[in-house]
Design goal:
Blueprint (H helix, E strand, L loop, with lengths): L9 E5 L1 H11 L1 H16 L11 E5 L2 E9 L3 E9 L13 E7 L5 E6 L1 H19 L6 E5 L5 H12 L3 E5 L3 H10 L6 E4 L3 H5 L4 E4 L6 E5 L9 E4 L8 E3 L1 H5 L2 E4 L2 H7 L12 E2 H5 L13 E4 L4 H14 L7 E4 L10 H8 L1
Helix pairs in contact: 1-2, 2-3, 2-4, 2-10, 3-4, 3-10
Length: 348
C-alpha cells in the first residue's frame, strides 16, 4: 500500500526537459534579461547573504564542489563538478543540480537540474558585469572558446547589452562551426576567425571561456589594447587560468567574492594583496567601475553561490502554475513527527 504524502513533503522537481521547456516558454532572451536582473538585485543586497568560498574536493582530473548561501529567509546550494577531460569521453565538462529551502523550517521548496541553469546564469552574470564595466555602447564581442558556454554568453550579451556582432575563435574549428550553426538564427552577425588576434580586432568586449585545466595563456599582453572590457570566465579553479599575468597587472580587476577568486581566478597569478573591486560595490554605487575610456576592465568571474541562489529563486517563481515541474515526495513527513519508524512500519 502506498501512503499519501503530506503536502509539505512534496517538493517541486525541475528536470532537464522541464528546464528546457521553461526557457522556450519564456524565450531565451527574455529569460536572460530576467535572470540578469535577478542576479543584479541580489548583488545589490549582498551584505545580507551568508558567504563562503565553495567547498571543493579536487583531484588531478577535476573538481566536485558544493556552493551554499542564504539570505536568512531562504537557503540554497548547488552541487557542481568540473572535469575538462570529460569532453573527450563524450561527457559534459560541468554538471550540476541545486536545492532551494525555507530557513524557518529547513524544508526544501525546489529541487532542480542546474547543468542547463548554470550555463544560463553564468552568461547572465557576464552580461551584468559587462553592463557595469564596459565602455559606452559596445557593439562587438570576441568569443574565445566556442564550447558549451559560448552560445549562452553571446545571447546574453545581445539581450542585456545590445551586442550585434560576435567574432568567434576556438583552437578546435569544429567547436566554432557548432557555435556558428547554433547562433545562425539569433540575429547576431557572426564572424569566424582563424586566430585569437583576428577575433579581438575591433571588439569592445572580449570573453574567454576555455575548458583546459591548465595555466593557459589564451591572451598575451600585446594582444589587448586600451579601452576593452574582458570577461575571463574559464579560469575557475586552482591551476587554471586564461590570461597572461601582465594583462591582469594593467587591468582594473573586478570580482565576485575575493576569498574565492584569489584561489580560483586569474588573480591566483598575482600577489595576495593585488587590488580588486567587488562587483556588488559597483552595482550599489559604493565603488567606481570604469573610470576612463582607455582603461582595461577585467571581470575575473569564477561563479559564486549567490548567482545560483538567484537562479533557483527565479525558476521557483516562474514554474508556478505551469506544467514545467513534477512534485516528488522528497521529505519523510509522518503525521506524528516523533513516529518516523511507525511511518516505515505502516508502509509495509
Amino acid at each position: 500500500m502506498k501512503l499519501a504524502a503530506s503536502p509539505l513533503a512534496m517538493v517541486p522537481f525541475v528536470s532537464v526537459d522541464h528546464m528546457m521547456q521553461l526557457v522556450h516558454h519564456i524565450g531565451i532572451e527574455a529569460f536572460m534579461i530576467d535572470l540578469a536582473a535577478e542576479i543584479e538585485a541580489d548583488f545589490a543586497r549582498w551584505e545580507l547573504f551568508d558567504k563562503t568560498p565553495r567547498v571543493a574536493s579536487h583531484s588531478n582530473i577535476g573538481v566536485i564542489e558544493l556552493m551554499p548561501t542564504s539570505d536568512q529567509t531562504q537557503y540554497g546550494f548547488k552541487y557542481v563538478n568540473g572535469h575538462p577531460k570529460n569532453m573527450k569521453e563524450g561527457l559534459q565538462t560541468v554538471t550540476a543540480f541545486g536545492v532551494l529551502a525555507n530557513v524557518d523550517t529547513g524544508y526544501p521548496v525546489l529541487f532542480s537540474e542546474m547543468t542547463m541553469l548554470t550555463a544560463l546564469r553564468t552568461a547572465a552574470m557576464s552580461a551584468v558585469a559587462t553592463k557595469h564595466l564596459a565602455g559606452p555602447n559596445p557593439r562587438s564581442m570576441a568569443m574565445i572558446g566556442n564550447g558549451a558556454q559560448s552560445e549562452f554568453q553571446c545571447i546574453a550579451q545581445k539581450a542585456v547589452n545590445g551586442i550585434e556582432t560576435i567574432r568567434l575563435y576556438d583552437v578546435d574549428s569544429a567547436a566554432t562551426t557548432k557555435c556558428a550553426a547554433n547562433l545562425a538564427d539569433s540575429g547576431l552577425e557572426l564572424i569566424i576567425c582563424d586566430t585569437p588576434e583576428a577575433a579581438i580586432e575591433g571588439a569592445g568586449i572580449i570573453t574567454t571561456a576555455t575548458a583546459d585545466k591548465n595555466m593557459q595563456t589564451i591572451l598575451t599582453d600585446n594582444m589587448v589594447g586600451s579601452g576593452v572590457h574582458i570577461n575571463a570566465i574559464g579560469g575557475d579553479c586552482p591551476g587554471k587560468t586564461e590570461l597572461h599575468r601582465d594583462i591582469v597587472a594593467r587591468s582594473s580587476v573586478f570580482v565576485e567574492y575575493p576569498p574565492q577568486t584569489r584561489i580560483e581566478g586569474e588573480l591566483q597569478q598575482m600577489d595576495p594583496d593585488h587590488p580588486a573591486t567587488e562587483l556588488w560595490q559597483v552595482i550599489t554605487g559604493k565603488a567606481k567601475g570604469r573610470q576612463s575610456a582607455n582603461e582595461i576592465t577585467l571581470f575575473d568571474g569564477v561563479g559564486f553561490a549567490i548567482e545560483d541562489f538567484s537562479a533557483l529563486r527565479y525558476v521557483h517563481r516562474k514554474i508556478q502554475n505551469t506544467p514545467y515541474y513534477i512534485d516528488i515526495d522528497l521529505i519523510a513527513d509522518p503525521d506524528d513527527p516523533r513516529d518516523l519508524f511507525g511511518m516505515l512500519k505502516r508502509a509495509g
